[in-house]
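Reposting from the mailing list since nobody answered there.

I have sequence plus structure tokens for a pair of proteins and want to know whether others read the tokens the same way I do. The first protein:
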Amino acid sequence: MSPDQWVAGDYADRMADTPSGGALPPSAPAAPPPGAPTPRMPLRRLGWRRFLALAGVVLLIAAGALFMVFTLGESLGAEALLVGVIAAILPVPVLVSCFLWLDRYEPEPLKYLIFCFAWGAFVSTAISLLVNTAAAGLFDDWGLPAALTAVLVAPFIEELTKAAGPLLVLIFRRREFSGITDGLVYCGLSAVGFAMVENILYLGGYGYRTGVEQYGPATGTQQVIAIFIVRILLFGFAHPLFTSMTGVGLGVAARTADRRVRVLAPLAGLLLAMILHGTWNLLPSLAQATGETVIVLYGYIGVMVPIFFAMVGLAVWLRAWEGRLTERTLPDYVRAGWLTPPEVAALGSLGRRHAARTWARRVAGDGGVRAMRGYQFAATRLALLRDGMRRGLDRKPAERERTAREERELLDAITAYRSFFVGRDPQAPVGVWDGQRYHLRFPDGSQRPVEAPDDPVVPIPVVLAPPPAFPPGGYGPTGWPGPGGGYGPSGHGQGGWPGAGHGPGSPWGR
């Protein structure tokens, strides 16, 4: 794109003058040797506190799993338990795949996804079973119908415990919780785990065992099929839909610097999840009490289905928002000479990302495509980090220092990933981007600058002029304040970003 004009969609606002950072390299960078390992992000050290916390979480989930296996096995019997487990697991891969599809721009660490699923499947179900059973006993002692448990108790304890796992991720691993999309994924997987274990009870107990006791195995099988169609094929979205409300609240809390919103948003989402869950459980009770089964149909079609499609639309929009976020925030690094305009454009949609991986495979083989995947992940994390800086999410000096360190790690990783595929395309001249324009070297040895096109070509196989060095103890390109000096480029002092002060051409002045 041209550095002296605006581009629709706020792709890179106005390109500021940027120091080249060094002389142009005479040729493409040296290719990594064959079989060279793809660079990886630094791993966190597992200190004794993290080890104890991890051990405690594993033991808690294991205890919940043993409790549920023992309780369901004693209640259903081995045969009915096996039938219930097989039938309840069938829809799980489909539901999990939907949430993983939603999380493709910045996939969350597998360990946290497994944690949320296991938390919902074993911890949430164990606590909910104990509380619901105790409440049913109290209602029976008071002479009240047991159906009140499903309306007055189950929605509250089930939604609270399902949300507890994702909430722990937000509190203790906030940097792995980058917005509403992550909230939907974490809470959705917790709800899928919960629904899976709950379906074991319905399919194995109310379905197979009850049918076998009454009429034999054939009837048991028929009832399993009937419950599977109604409870999973028609209403299988119920638990994820309820808990997604809490996920929205947690996601809003993760991306705001306002302490009041951080508290109120999750509470509002949790309350809405409880209300929807309670309404869902109330419908069959009303239908049974009045004899009007059409109440369930009206509630399903008139309330739950519209809410479901609204949440699906929101999820799809948020998924695309993560791609657009890179186009809004990464141009800061284009102006500093760390990235090129086409690289930012190539991150804007999943189709472009796939095209970039195809190109990387063509010019650099399997190592190139692995590096491109890592590059895309690191670039998305960098965009989220920069967005968090703009929002002022880090208030404490320790948090800012950690952000500075993570930004440096991401930029170093991006530079390492680029070396696997940039400048390797034999069908294009060697090109260098200096933060303002391209410098292309042609086969006859001539070299001349070329302005960036208005619509970036995806991808342009160019290398970068050596980027500005980090200041001691600071982060970002030269001139960015250190961890104690605030965020963003600075127009003060030598080596800062020219034109990056608070002016009309600066993203920090808008």
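The second protein, same order (residues first, tokens after):
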Amino acid sequence: MTSHTEWLRRALLATALTMAGPALAADDGKVANFLLDNGMEVVVVPDHRAPIVTHMVWYKIGSADEPPGKSGIAHFFEHLMFKATTNHAAGEFDRAISAIGGSNNAFTSYDYTAFHETVAPSALGEMMSFEADRMRNLILTDEVIKTERDVILEERRSRIDSNPQAVLDEEVDATLWQNQPYRIPVIGWMQEMEQLNRTDAVAFYDKYYRPNNAVLIVAGDVEPEVVKALAEKTYGKVARGPDLPLRIRPVEPEQNTKRTVTLTDGRVSVPSFSTQWVVPSYHTAKPGEAEALDLLGEILGGGSRSRLYQQLVVKQGIASATGAFFQGTMLDATNFTVYGAPRGDAKLSDVEAAVEAEIARIVKDGVTADELEKAKARYIRAMIFARDKQDEMANLYGAELATGGNVRDIEEWPDRIRKVTADEIKAVAARYLLLDRTTTGYLLPQQQAGN
């Protein structure tokens, strides 16, 4: 099972693709979107270039939806979904996929949990049958709970507690978010994970793992009418659950302070920093704002052509790494981040000051027409490249639909990006990237403690 941290890192590296879905499938087959009678939404993205298919089930439940004191239950339940059901023994699903040369995995994020398989088209019906079965028929005994709880506790020790960067990231999140549940780690806090039990798991399962709280994404060598028939035969037999209330979470108050979090550790060899601001996501922004933030992140620090890279790495030679990104596909408000690490004899403070100077330049003078057009062109090319990766296409649609969007939002996204003006980018930089309202994390070598 893929950890949230690994999946999110891949998503951030492909930030240009976070919202950039192709309006059409890879071979120009029109994307189909329909509802089953039990409320399960289905999206089909035809791509007939290779005889494979990616099958994903996205549940509209993530760590930010967890009850108070039950942190980690969403990720815990992702693990439990691989256990025995009334119809299949534990491990039978995995063995069936391996026997046909397929692959499968799952991941949990703040806003959703997803399960996916990549197989030959002939096996699609079998995958649907297995997924529909575990949607409601898991066997959750006390022994199963105890064994898998030990697994997630060890996962936290190995992935978080033994990793200085991961520890700092958790502390920064807990400082950045004063009220929103994004302040709680997806994997959970250790002391609460230790108390998760069968009662918690069954209540979570019965409430959220229902067809009317799920989205099915099928991308690959399939036709919509075939997928619909298979989905009705499998998922369509699962009873609709009670209607869930709207996902209304605590709202973040206005932030008006500058905060820092510092971690020193002997395992750290090169110091680094990251600075974050609370900004609106695609789901919460005013029209045009999220698109402007996306392009701002690209121009400021989206890659080797960005301002930060050209100034700090190429021209000044003071940074070994630097960049910026906007994590747009979140259900609630999100973050805009800049980061950097020094090179050679340069100091971390030099890199941080240079990053702030580039932000101040954009706030004061904006971006050039040439920068903007090139950034837009890179985004459009990224959409073209996404069509070559079936799993990315499935992820794009799934993440969008699981966070309040729809297929039309993805289809219209390129045109909205094309309409962003330089003035709009300058405006969001001035409105949100206020240097006296930041949360900055410093990761320092042990010898720099107290400096």
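Reply #1 (J.P.):
I read it the same way you do. The first strand starts at residue 32 and ends at 35.
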